Each structure stands twice: as C-alpha cells, then as structure tokens.
Amino acid sequence: MNLADYRRAARAWLRDNAPSADSPDAGGVTHAKSFMAKLYDAGYSGITWPKRWGGQGLTEAEERAFAAEARDFTLPTYVFSIGLGMTGPTILDRGTDAQRERFIRPLLRGEEIWCQLFSEPGAGSDVAGLQTRAVRDGDTWIVNGQKVWTSVAHYADWGLLLTRTNVDVPKHKGLTMFVIDMHHPGVTVRPLKDMTGRANFNEVFFDNVPIPDEHRVGEVDDGWSVAVTTLLHERLSISAGVGMGGSKDHPASLAALRQSVDTSDPLVRDQLVELYIRSRALALFNQRLAQETEAGVFPGARGGAAKLLLAELTLFQADLATQLVGPESVLADHPLAQAISLAPGYALGGGTNEIMRNIVGERVLGLPPEPRVDKTVPFKDLKVGTQG
Fold first, then answer.
1. 3-108, which class in CATH?
2. If you ran DSSP here, which 8-state letter would residue 73 be given?
3. DSSP 283-339
C-alpha cells in the first residue's frame, strides 16, 4: 500500500471508530482499553515497532501519516502514553527477549497500563541522587522507598522503576532499573492534588516489595544508561505533542482561541500569529528528527531541544489563553482550566527547562560543562536530597 492509500485508509478507520467526546464512558479506562484493542487489531498501534514483538513493522512515514490524520480526532489514549512513548521503547531497546515477549504485545493492545518511576522528593532535576533502595536476596530484589510526580500510577499495572543498588560508588554508577508489579500489596499509590482539587500526578510508596531478577532491565548498577534511554524517548514523545493545542478540539488550540477571542484587534492577531509560528517551527523540527530517525540517525541530545521548545511553547500558550480569555479561564468549570493547570508540568517532565538548556549547550553546541564536584564521590558520602 502506498503512503497516500495508507493515509486514506487510516482516516476512514478513524472516522468510523474514533469515539466522540460525549459518548458514554468517554473518559473511562475500560473505554480506553477497548479502543486500544481495536486500534491494535486494525494495525495502528505500534506502527514502527518490530513485528516479532507485536508491532506492525512499518516505517516512520506511516507513523507520521497516521498521526497527521489522528490530530483531527480526540482519541482516548492518554493512559497509555507512558507505555507507548517511554517504557515500551525502553523494553524494546534494553530489555531481554523474554521481557519483550511478555510485555510489549499487551502494552500495544491496551491490556496493561504502564507508569514511569524516576523522580523522588529529594531527587527531581538530579534524578541520579535518588534513594529508593533495591537490596538483592538471592534471585529476588527487595525494594523500599518513595517516588513522586508519577503520571497514571493509579491506573498502572506495571512500572519502570529506577533504584539505588550500590551506595559505595558515585551516584550515577550505583543504579539499577526494574519492572515492578504495581498491584503488589507493598505498593501504595496516593494522589497529589493541586489547588483546583485535581490530581494529575501521584506519589508512590514501596514497602518491602519483591522483584524477581528476571524483571531487571539492563545490568546491575548500570541503570543510569537505561534511564538515559528512557529519558531520550520521553523527551521525543513529549515534544511530539506540539503544545497544548495538538488537537484542533483542544480548548487552548489556535483554532479554539480564534473562535473565542476578538480577532479584529491587531494585537490579538499578532499574538495568534506568534503562537502559529512557534507551533509550526516545533512541528517541522519534530518532522526532521523523525526523518533522521527513519534514516538511522538517532536524534540523541537534540531530542532535549525539541522537548525544551515544547515546554516553552506550552507555557506561552497557557499565558496567552489566560490573557485573551480573561480571569474566567481559570475557573474550575472552564474548559481551559485543566489545560492551564497542566502547563507547568511540561517544563518539568523529562527534565526541567534548565536541565534541557544544559544538555543542549554541552552536547549539541559543545559548550564547556558546568563544574561537578560529586561525579567521583561515593553516594554514601554525599549530602543529597533527604540524605545528610
């Protein structure tokens, strides 16, 4: 099938199967899982993932074509975003064949939901300073600790967990990655509520949770390199959202704002043009990264630049929507309120804007790195986070 036919077929399928926003249980997890199963069976889940593990084995061109058509529809896939954009690709890149066989197909069919467990109360920007411990006991690891700012943890069946396994080496060299069963009784998930009363994130506690060694991803004490793989995928996945207005139906999209504000004002038109320019620039940059990936050139640190552009765009979009619509935009029942409250998260998830600027400066532009005094000091001798 050529690309034009593929795109027409995708649009026809979406037109017949994409749920309407007001359909029963449109926001429910059961509804989302049912849709993901249909999406998979139609060949539109895991478009570029290897056939051997349940993907479609197609190219970035088909994935971009489907994504372009999907922007005109509101798809209930949010709860699967961590698995599809971050943990699944990490398992494909760094997991064992047994792990790929066990986890990838159920993820793509929407049978299992994933979360990512990196940040901690004392380890946000400095993820390598984390303190959640995994202690080996034969063929099992016992985990104790806490994670925070975890999206969809209250729905998740599995989590990709970064732990401290060695305190006698520098902090980046004593980490190990695991897949953890989120339904184990030693795992407690609590919502983190913002000032609106919404809970877009969670905190997660681990109390003597056993993990079999077969669920270890990568080598012991080499978890940082696995985490870097996850973060690269996360930044590319986040940036591909192209701002709060990725869908034309989004309340903060350019199309929605044009309908709700006075566009006869030249200053308003200037601001909307600025929003369009920023959105289009990011979309083109993402397209270039996708084309390079298809050609076998992995974006690497430039994925951080895309993520930084997305975060800046989203904050600009939230500020603009608030300014143009007025104070009522932040009222609890206004369609924009949820989008505005989520906007700062884009500047934090996948690495803060400040961290992204450091990465771009050092690894893309070749600028001198900032001085680091902790890279050769054993973790047990550091005073970091709550350790001191």
1. mainly alpha
2. S
3. HHHHHHHHHHHHTT---TTHHHHHHHHHHHHHHHHHHHHHHHH-GGGGSTTSHHHHH
Asked if CATH classification 1.20.140.10 holds for the domain at 240-351, the reply, yes or no, is: yes
User: Over its length of 388 residues, how does the chain's per-residue pLDDT go in tens digits?
Assistant: 788 999 999 999 999 998 865 555 556 899 999 999 999 999 999 999 999 999 999 988 898 889 889 888 888 998 999 999 999 999 999 999 999 999 999 999 999 999 999 999 988 878 999 999 999 999 999 999 999 999 999 999 999 999 999 999 999 999 999 999 999 999 999 999 877 777 888 999 999 999 999 999 999 999 999 999 998 887 766 655 543 344 445 555 666 777 777 788 899 889 999 988 998 888 888 888 877 777 777 777 787 788 888 889 889 988 888 888 888 877 767 777 777 877 888 787 777 888 889 888 988 889 998 888 888 899 999 887 666 5
Phi, psi of 115 (to 5 degrees): -135, 170
- Rounded Cα distance between 52 and 367, Å, is 42
Domain ranges for the chain: 3-108, 114-226, 240-351
Distance CA 243, CA 61 (A): 22
Rounded CA-CA distance 327/316 in Å is 16
Tokens 């990838």 belong to 104
* Tokens of residue 239, six digits: 């940036």
Residues 160/211, Cβ–Cβ less than 8 Å: no
Are domains 3-108 and 240-351 of this chain identical in fold?
Answer: no
Pairing of strands 201-212, 140-147: antiparallel
**114-226 has CATH 2.40.110.10 classification:** yes
Q: Which helix (H) or strand (E) holds 209?
A: strand 201-212
What distance in Å separates the CA atoms of residue 138 and residue 255, rounded to the nearest whole number? 58
Q: What is the DSSP string of 116-176?
A: EE--BTTBSS-GGG---EEEEETTEEEEEEEE-S-TTTTT-SEEEEEEE--SSSBGGGSEE
Cα 386 from Cα 25, distance rounded (Å): 42
Cα dist from 152 to 62, 198, 287, whole Å: 28, 13, 28
